Amino acid sequence: MEMNDLALPVTRVMPNAVQMHTLKGNMGGAVRLELLFKGGYAVQDKPLQATFTNRMLREGAGMMNADEISRKLDFYGAWIETYSSLNCNHITLYALSKHFPELLGLLETIVKNPLFPQENLELIKRNAKGYYAVNSRKVDVVSQRYFENSLWGAEHPLGHIVEQDDYDAITRDDLLRYYNTVYGSRNCSVFISGCADDSLLDEIERHFGTGEWGAPALCDVVLPAPAVVCGRRNIPVEGTMQCGVKIGFMAMESGTPDFFRFRFLTVLLGGYFGSRLMSNIREENGYTYHISAEIDAYGKRNAFMISSETANEYVELCIKEIYAEIEKLVSEPIPEDEVEHVRNYILGEMCREVEGLTPRSEIFVNSWLSGDCFASVNAYLDTVRSVTAGELQEVARKYLRKDSMIEIVAGV
User: Fold this and answer.
1) Number of structural domains the chain divides into
2) Do 200 and 122 contact (CB within 8 A), yes or no?
3) Which parts of 260-365 are beta strand (E)?
4) How far is CA 283 from CA 245, 274, 288, 383, in A?
5) Residue in 294, 223, 292, 299 with CA at minimum distance from that of residue 255
6) pLDDT tens for residues 331-353?
7) Do 269 and 329 contact (CB within 8 A), yes or no?
8) Cα–Cα distance measured from residue 169 to residue 171, given in angstroms and rounded to the nearest whole number
9) Which stretches within 136-222 are classed as H helix?
10) How, if at all, do strands 242-251 and 60-61 pair?
11) Within 13 Å of residue 25, how many CA atoms lie on the same side as its CB?
């Protein structure tokens, strides 16, 4: 299958030095505007501080309460998403381009003048604790928590396992302190995709790019080194009929030739319905309904993870077959027709993704978050087009070692 290189975002440096990266396209008249603030979990001084600060931005700002903000968004058929990651806080506005000028003022107020009302905070904390309690009975969620704990170590922001007490401990003062540390033009970047003409870009600049505002520039944060704990951990979860299984390791950093080849290899192993893991463990043996292999990005660092849920009596058999498939990649030549099949699958998925407003933007946002230049997206495409079976096996032999694996089994 043929696929051309992707058009790269156009970067505009606004008068206050905030960079605005634009991917233009019709996209049915829709626009996606994402504000990214350097910080994330890396600069919080309490668990959940970044998440709650970002979530509370839309709970009241300026002269508007949460209901008034929601009604205005609903009136224009728009919505706002917020989430936090290791090194960034994300605020994303979706709307039709014809309504964007009216909504940019609202977004500016939400970002620059949040109120953090105490009553709303208590309600959100109660709801979050309820979700936490429900999720703590889900083996997939529990296995993910402990996988990250083993991957990073308990002292790392990503390795800390959140407890009920962490929700109770969050206060309005914690949110204000974090907000005043992170949210400002000196820590902000803008990504916009969709039907955005020059007049809309000028409006964004008027609201966010004409003068410095908010928190001072953050210094580079030095995080604890990952304290990986390899080997098996069995985590009990009461009342479950299945176990959540995670197997993986800390992979190489983004942007290297090995990383691109390893991404391809991961798809071949467990990244699509006809992958080796699905064919063996689901189709041939019936140990699970679904199993996957993926690479999770944490800034520039990456984790390789195989994930599945299986009945209690099949856990050991499932794990045995996972390692059998890994060993085949290491010891047996990979058929050329299989490589070609996976190549076509990846290129086809990329073609589909770049037609969508959100996936197209996220491809480049993720590249930016990993510290790579935008051109790395096309460098990956070059690898997909040209990688050979021999190169894939070389990568498998180099990185897929059982003694480096974390194993988490959550359930009985």
Assistant:
1) 2
2) no
3) 288-298, 301-311
4) 18, 9, 9, 30
5) 299
6) 999 999 999 999 999 999 988 87
7) yes
8) 6
9) 139-152, 164-169, 172-182, 198-208
10) unpaired
11) 18
The answer on 258 and 191 residing in a single domain is no
Residue 102's domain comprises 10-208
Q: Tell me: the pLDDT tens digits for 119-134?
A: 999 999 999 999 999 9
How does residue 1 score in pLDDT terms, banded at 50, 70 and 90?
Answer: low
Examine the domain organization and report whether 271 and 304 are in the same domain.
Answer: yes
Q: What is the pLDDT of residues 246-287, one digit of tens each?
A: 999 999 988 777 999 999 999 999 999 999 999 999 999 999
- On whether both 64 and 199 belong to a single domain, the answer is yes
The β-bridge partners of 298 are: 301
Phi/psi for 109 (5° steps) reads -65, -40
Residue type, 38: K
pLDDT of residue 371 exceeding 80: no
Burial degree of 296 (CB within 10 A; 0-12, 13-18, 19+):
middle
Same domain, 55 and 177: yes
